[in-house]
Specification:
Elements (H helix, E strand, L loop, with lengths): L2 E2 L2 E2 H32 L6 H19 L3 H22 L9 H23 L15 E3 L4 E3 H23 L1 H11 L1 H6 L4 H23 L11 H14 L4 H21 L7 H12 L9
Antiparallel strand pairs: 1-2, 3-4
Helix pairs in contact: 1-5, 1-8, 1-9, 1-10, 2-3, 2-4, 2-8, 3-8, 5-6, 9-10, 9-11
């Protein structure tokens, strides 16, 4: 059987692979959001801006300082994560004990400022970033020529997602983090610096977004609007998986990317809204999300 509903099977398989690539970005970005909300209770609308900053940091490091892609994968997330730490200390730490809506409004405003500053500095047109030499070329998988770089993106995203989940859910550090968010006074009594832990947790969530930005730089044009066009979908992914659920963010991101790719084959007009249709269905059936706590 070489076709499905009259569509050639190689076309379907190709779109599913591209959907898995998009799902890898959804998973990593929603993972950062889930970490920040699940451990800190902050709806970080600036996540798309940090993703965009990661891509711009890689582009700037290469163009101005000659720093290659592999070094940018380390330097850019650390630099953007440090910026996130400064933002947490300057603004967000004052909002933890009040309605999360204030945190959402603050981070939304900060994301608009970041977009405006970068648009003023570099313009609105996209900037290209070359694929590193080691990852150039393509693999023949039978039904399509799959770029090696896209394979690397999927592998890197899955690896980072698994390591983050393992750190938070299966290690003593993760247990301490969860305890610090549920009962900070008790954890503080054991001599643990809870404010510093919260600060570093926010920085780590921001660094995940920047890491995804570096990965995306050779695939899409680096522009000030690249984050805002993606963050709405990522928020939908987080809601479907369950706000604050690490595993839900990962599985929902990957699954929805594949579903979106499949929809592009069967009914392309619906591919831009299928995630939101699924979100509406999930919220009607289970308001806390698929993996969220009631």
């Amino acid at each position: 059987m070489n076709d499905f509903f009259g569509i050639p099977l190689p076309v379907i398989l190709g779109q599913l692979l591209l959907g898995l690539l998009n799902g890898s970005f959804y998973a990593m970005l929603s993972l950062g959001l889930a970490v920040i909300f699940g451990l800190l209770g902050v709806v970080n609308f600036a996540h798309g801006a940090f993703y965009m900053m990661g891509a711009y940091a890689a582009w700037f490091l290469l163009g101005q300082l000659g720093v290659n892609y592999w070094m940018a994968l380390v330097i850019a997330p650390l630099a953007v994560g440090a910026l996130g730490v400064l933002m947490e200390r300057a603004f967000l730490k004052h909002l933890y004990k009040i309605d999360p809506l204030y945190g959402l409004l603050l981070t939304f405003g900060l994301s608009l400022i970041a977009e405006g500053v970068l648009r003023e500095l570099f313009g609105s047109s996209g900037q290209s970033y070359p694929v590193p030499e080691l990852l150039q070329g393509a693999l023949d998988v039978g039904f399509m020529m799959l770029p090696i770089y896209r394979v690397w993106v999927i592998v890197a995203s899955l690896t980072v997602c698994f390591l983050t989940w393992f750190l938070i859910e299966r290690t003593r550090l993760g247990s301490t983090l969860r305890a610090a968010t549920e009962n900070p006074q008790l954890v503080q009594a054991f001599g643990i610096n809870v404010p510093r832990m919260v600060m570093l947790t926010y920085g780590a969530g921001v660094a995940l977004a920047a890491f995804a930005g570096v990965l995306s730089a050779p695939i899409i044009q680096v522009s000030p609007l690249m984050g805002s066009s993606l963050v709405i979908v990522v928020f939908a992914v987080v809601v479907i998986g369950g706000m604050g659920s690490i595993l839900g963010a990962i599985l929902s991101g990957l699954s929805l990317g594949v579903i979106e790719g499949f929809t592009k084959v069967l009914y392309p007009e619906a591919s831009n809204i299928v995630v939101f249709v699924i979100m509406a269905m999930v919220l009607c059936w289970r308001p806390s999300g698929l993996f969220g706590k009631e």
